[in-house]
């Protein structure tokens, strides 16, 4: 169909008065990504003019989540490309618009439009300014999920990867909650901290203020200078450090190593640049390196280390291989 839809039809739908034919028209119109943001703009404008239609978000979320669970593999037209985001389970504050989405029974639409998705490519560092004035700096290969009604129904975000958060306090002392994919929660009011949630593990570093760290096994309050690492069973291992600066060196594309094994360096290269590094033998993998190095791509870092450690770097397709120099 022609991808145009009158604002009047959507207003009719928002008011719960749309006909089955109009609902089908909206459904088809929303299959096109360029229309999805426009939908939310019109919805926000309409709700501002009709506050009596605002719903309690808790039951809307429960019904919406049940719908998503029933439609784990929704059918999609062959000409529609699904948005490149994954489903995120935010808990209690899903906005009233969820009720609007529920009525359509659109699994794809509900999963992609409930939040904004900020992402970084390998080697990229990006800053995101949230509606409450809080600032998030994303490290490479990271994702931040922010609900579209952030601030109005709570301040909860989800992080995959690594980021620094500078949280702005609010007049009503509204908490700010960061959730990670493995279940760690960081709760603050106003502070500066950094989270790394990678396959190798989760680490939380507190720069200023105070935060409450919650896992499946433990809760702990961190103080400035604390570095907390989350174990496999959810246990928290806390360490007080003299300086947290090395944990934020990535913001300037710097790598800080302190008796770091070559195996750990290879893992970081894979996380940050998406380049797999093979190490020829276990003895070489256990060698350590100390120092600070500037690098904006994998080869910049590996070639410097090769000279320092007297090793060879060879390319195998998109991968790299480290071996002892002959």
Automatic annotation (TrEMBL):
Residues 118-211 form the FecR protein domain. The keyword Cytoplasm does not apply. InterPro entries: FecR, FecR_C, Ferrdict_sens_TM. Keywords: Membrane, Transmembrane, Transmembrane helix. The keyword rRNA-binding does not apply. Residues 254-318 form the Protein FecR C-terminal domain. Pfam families: FecR, FecR_C. One of its GO terms (molecular function) is sigma factor antagonist activity. The chain crosses the membrane at residues 92-110. This is Ferric-dicitrate binding protein FerR, regulates iron transport through sigma-19.
């Amino acid at each position: 169909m022609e991808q145009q839809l009158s604002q009047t039809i959507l207003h009719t739908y928002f008011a719960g008065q749309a006909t089955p034919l109009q609902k089908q028209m909206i459904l088809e119109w929303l299959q096109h990504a360029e229309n999805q943001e426009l939908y939310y703009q019109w919805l926000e404008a309409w709700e501002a003019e009709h506050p009596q239609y605002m719903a309690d978000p808790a039951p809307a979320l429960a019904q919406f989540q049940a719908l998503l669970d029933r439609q784990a593999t929704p059918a999609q037209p062959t000409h529609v490309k699904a948005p490149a985001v994954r489903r995120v389970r935010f808990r209690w504050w899903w906005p009233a618009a969820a009720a609007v989405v529920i009525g359509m029974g659109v699994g794809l639409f509900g999963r992609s439009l409930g939040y904004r998705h900020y992402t970084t490519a390998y080697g990229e560092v990006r800053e995101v300014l949230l509606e409450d004035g809080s600032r998030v700096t994303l490290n490479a290969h990271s994702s931040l999920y922010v609900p579209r009604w952030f601030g109005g129904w709570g301040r909860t975000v989800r992080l995959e990867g690594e980021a620094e958060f500078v949280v702005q306090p609010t007049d009503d002392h509204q908490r700010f909650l960061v959730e990670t994919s493995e279940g760690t929660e960081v709760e603050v009011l106003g502070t500066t901290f950094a989270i790394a949630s990678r396959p190798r593990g989760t680490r939380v570093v507190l720069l200023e203020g105070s935060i409450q760290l919650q896992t499946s096994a433990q809760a702990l309050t961190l103080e400035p200078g604390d570095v907390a690492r989350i174990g496999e069973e959810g246990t928290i291992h806390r360490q007080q450090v003299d300086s947290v600066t090395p944990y934020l060196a990535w913001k300037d594309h710097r790598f800080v190593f302190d008796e770091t094994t070559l195996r750990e360096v290879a893992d970081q290269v894979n996380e940050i640049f998406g380049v797999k590094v093979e190490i020829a033998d276990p003895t070489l993998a256990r060698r350590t390196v100390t120092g600070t190095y500037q690098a904006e791509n994998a080869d910049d870092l590996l070639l410097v280390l090769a000279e320092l450690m007297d090793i060879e770097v060879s390319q195998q397709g998109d991968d790299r291989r480290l071996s002892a120099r002959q």
